[in-house]
Amino acid sequence: MTAAFHRQVSLARIKNEDANRTVKLVGVTAADTGKAISLDAASGANCFKLAGDGDTIVGRLEVYESDGAGTVSFQFTDPLPIKAGQTVAVGDTVVGAGGGEVKAAASADHSKNFVVEVANGKAVVVRL
Asked: CA 53 to CA 4: how far, in whole Å?
């Protein structure tokens, strides 16, 4: 039997570029790259914003463009910032906590997303 060659396993940063789309961004800046994104239906068709408190997370901001557009990944396995003071655990579903940060949802719903790793103030979230 051969020896195991994996010493550390992480799902972080698995990309699904087929799920990336260009969208209109509302109230988002370049500093928000990597944060959680929600639909902003109040601003019109194809508009997205940073995930607010309790918002359903629909994607992660991959690229910000200065003309108000950007690329959002709608399927990802990537770290999202956890709001300070919030506790998120492996197996949780996360929702917006404001400003594109996340917190644990009141109950897990893995059809929306699920956390596979927590480290350094970020939750590695799988959204299929």
From this structure: 43
The whole-number pLDDT of residue 18 equals: 79
| 55-69 per-position pLDDT tens digit | 999 999 999 999 999
Instruction: Answer yes or no: are the C-beta atoms of 83 and 97 closer than 8 Å.
Output: yes
Q: Are 55 and 38 in contact (CB under 8 A)?
A: yes
DSSP letter, residue 55: P
pTM to 2 decimal places = 0.88
CA distance 6 to 17: 26
Dist CA 101 CA 20 (whole Å): 20
Alpha-carbon gap, residue 75 to 83, rounded angstroms:
22
CB atoms within 10 A of CB 26: 14
CA distances for 16 relative to 23, 60, 74, 128, angstroms: 17, 12, 9, 10
Domain definitions of the chain by residue range: 17-75, 77-127
